[in-house]
Amino acid sequence: MSGHSKWSNIKRKKEASDAAKGAIFTKIAKEIAVAVKAGGPDPDGNSRLKDVVAKAKAANMPNDNIARAIKKAAGAGEGDDYEEITYEGYGPGGVAVIVKTLTNNRNRTAGDVRHLFDKYGGNMGVSGSVSFLFEDKGVIVISKEEYEDEDQVMSDALDAGAEDFSSEDECYEITTSPDDYYAVRDSLEDKGYVFLDSSLGPVPVTYAQITDPALQEQFDKMLDKMDENDDIQEVFHNLDD
């Protein structure tokens, strides 16, 4: 995921899913398994699962696949062996990077993540080494094409308790505090809004820039390789692109 624009992050993920839908769907199924284990198989009563289902739909994962993954997790104890581990470090050009993983072998995953940082000119740090450059926020993305009345969308978002609203090239980005995220999302859903994406996670407080094309290429390659790793679920960074 990249840059300060949440939608640029999603577009990048969509491009990756078009190139390797199977790999993306496998990662989402793993997230579904962990979410079901944590809160049960009903998305209406499990906010985390509701988020994962929204992510699955944004990635064009078929409804049948989603339903099968939930059923399998509910019936077979899927997700019991997965551990959530977050790694932090600096990529090429000093860009801060947070890597969220789900793994059943922490030694393998730690080695893989460290190797990817090292191979592309970065370095993996200890917990807390870059997280101070981010803050948790809820981000909800709505299509401009589907909802053309910007004033109405902004009014609905702010009435629901949103912290901020911005209009980007292709979408509206609604930002919430972590505590208000689920209430805002549910309020907008009740009004009939369908989201391009919604998530609760780290958003940069400050941004870095890369002016050297070679470093930019290294950074992009590192992100691509992280996307391809089965244990890595999401990558956040503070590159201002």
What does this protein look like?
- It is a single chain.
- The protein is α+β, with helices and mostly antiparallel strands.
- The chain folds into three domains: 71 residues, Orthogonal Bundle (Arc Repressor Mutant, subunit A); 83 residues, YebC, transcriptional regulation domain (Alpha-Beta Plaits, 2-Layer Sandwich), CATH 3.30.70; 71 residues, Alpha-Beta Plaits, CATH 3.30.70.980.
- Helix content is 45%, strand content 22%.
- It is built from eight helices and eight strands, in the order ααααββαββαββαβαβ.
- The strands form two sheets. A four-stranded antiparallel beta sheet has the order 3-1-2-8. A four-stranded antiparallel beta sheet has the order 5-6-4-7, with helices on both faces.
- Helix 1 packs across helix 2 and helix 2 runs antiparallel to helix 3.
- The longest helix has 19 residues.
- It is globular.
Q: Biggest β-sheet: count, sense, barrel?
A: 4 strands, antiparallel
The ordered H/E elements are HHHHEEHEEHEEHEHE
Q: What is the molecular shape?
A: globular
Q: Structural class, from secondary structure content?
A: alpha+beta
Strand content: 15-25%
Give me the CATH architecture of the largest domain, please. Answer: 2-Layer Sandwich
Order of adjacent strands in the largest pleated sheet: 3-1-2-8
Oligomer class:
single chain
Radius of gyration: 18 Å
- Total helix count? 8
Tell me the total number of β-strands.
8
Which fold name is given in CATH as the topology of the largest domain?
Alpha-Beta Plaits
CATH H-level superfamily of the largest domain? YebC, transcriptional regulation domain
Helix content: 40-55%
Which residue ranges are poorly predicted, with pLDDT under 50 across at least 5 consecutive positions?
A: 1-7
User: What is the number of independent domains?
Assistant: 3
Mean pLDDT: 87
Give the terminus-to-terminus CA distance. Answer: 11 Å
For the record, what CATH class of the largest domain applies?
Alpha Beta
